[in-house]
Amino acid sequence: MSTGTSFLRKMSLHKFRKSISSSKLDAETVVSQQEEPLTPPPETQNVLLLHAARQPYEYTENYPVPKLENDHEVLVRAQAIGLNPIDWKAPDFNFAIPELPYISGRELSGEIVQLSPTISPRLKLKDRVLAISTDYRDLRKAAYQEYVVAFDYNTVRLPPNLTHEEGSTLGVAFVAAALALGVCAGLDFSSVLDGPDLFSLIRNISPSQIADDIRQECLDSIRPHERAQPGDWLAVWGGSSTSANLTIQLAKLAGLKTVAVVDKAKHGLRLANHHAIRTDLLVDSHDPARAVEIIRANLKGKLRFGIDVRGRESATSLLQALSPDNLGSVTDKDAPPSPPSTPKDSTLLSAHLIGLTGLPKQAAPEGTLFHTVPIKLFHEVPEVGEALVGWLERLLAAGLVQPPEIIDVEDGLRSINKGLNRMRKGEISGGKLVVRV
């Protein structure tokens, strides 16, 4: 079953007809673009600028179109932008804003309109692409503008069966999921369409290519014999989010067994009925202590890997559910858990808690390790970026990864503030809000 077909089955009849029409138009556009000459990019464009924390983004005209600065860059004309929670949380809580005025936005889809002469042969003018911007310090790469610069090794060609709207939903979530699983948990993806073995890849490049603040996480955070293997269990707390969606999809493709902790009243049926994100165990999140009890009772000491996508509080709960190898022999499910100790035998296995948005305040208990996702690997190490975008292209073309559900679509850059307000209010859950440019 194709990626588009599976996605459409989750929509109402109205949205089904609308999406079919959109897909046909997209296909017609591809043919038309191949026949039409390429129009050079203009000198100026429209953008959204943030001038101060706790203020809305300001629609601004006649802003310079960004220029290409090195041999790995392409210029993309935006067609659709995927909104992310950090786009409203950063100004509201005044973090991750390196300069003012600031342009935000982390992922978009569009058409390549300019490229450097020595660019990767994988990309060509007029290609329909997803541009993934994890480099929030370079405003040229931000999504809230009509023309965006992207590294070739951070740019993914979209297959014909995906619309621009669908393509804009999955970039950052895919990168976060792949790095969390491949680097922090050591999972090898080489059995899935020749995916990357990131654990080995980053050990075959010079350590000087890896930034100081992530080098320990990349090179020393998990021992080779502790790497996640097919058949191991992974728990994802906050399983309804886009990041969780892609994490579950990639984990399942690589052979892991999965647990999702979610609001079952809102998301249980959707997750249970969706083949790509259906987990082996689905646990309700309303009573965290009860959720931990259910996980421990069902997995009986077999859970060594946990990924939290919500924050410090839920990460603290997930920590309670993990079982290092030296606790795995506990058979009395009613016995209170004892503090884990560092395994003396080097063959014993630690538990690993990966936080996408936060980790517990407490220090990691003995026998358990905390991890933060080294997201900058994607844009700072070309070998990593190229391995991930090439793999994502193959996954999308084969229909093995499906884009998250689109909750709604807004129109125009001016509508981004409205969309972010809807996210602030909690109106967007279990999928993505997209803006057509």
TrEMBL record:
<dbReference type="GO" id="GO:0016651">
    <property type="term" value="F:oxidoreductase activity, acting on NAD(P)H"/>
</dbReference>
<dbReference type="InterPro" id="IPR013154">
    <property type="entry name" value="ADH-like_N"/>
</dbReference>
<feature type="region of interest" description="Disordered">
    <location>
        <begin position="324"/>
        <end position="347"/>
    </location>
</feature>
<protein>
    <submittedName>
        <fullName>Chaperonin 10-like protein</fullName>
    </submittedName>
</protein>
<comment type="similarity">
    <text>Belongs to the zinc-containing alcohol dehydrogenase family.</text>
</comment>
<dbReference type="InterPro" id="IPR047122">
    <property type="entry name" value="Trans-enoyl_RdTase-like"/>
</dbReference>
<feature type="domain" description="Alcohol dehydrogenase-like N-terminal">
    <location>
        <begin position="71"/>
        <end position="159"/>
    </location>
</feature>
<dbReference type="InterPro" id="IPR036291">
    <property type="entry name" value="NAD(P)-bd_dom_sf"/>
</dbReference>
<keyword id="KW-0560">Oxidoreductase</keyword>
<dbReference type="Pfam" id="PF08240">
    <property type="entry name" value="ADH_N"/>
</dbReference>
<dbReference type="InterPro" id="IPR052585">
    <property type="entry name" value="Lipid_raft_assoc_Zn_ADH"/>
</dbReference>
<dbReference type="InterPro" id="IPR011032">
    <property type="entry name" value="GroES-like_sf"/>
</dbReference>
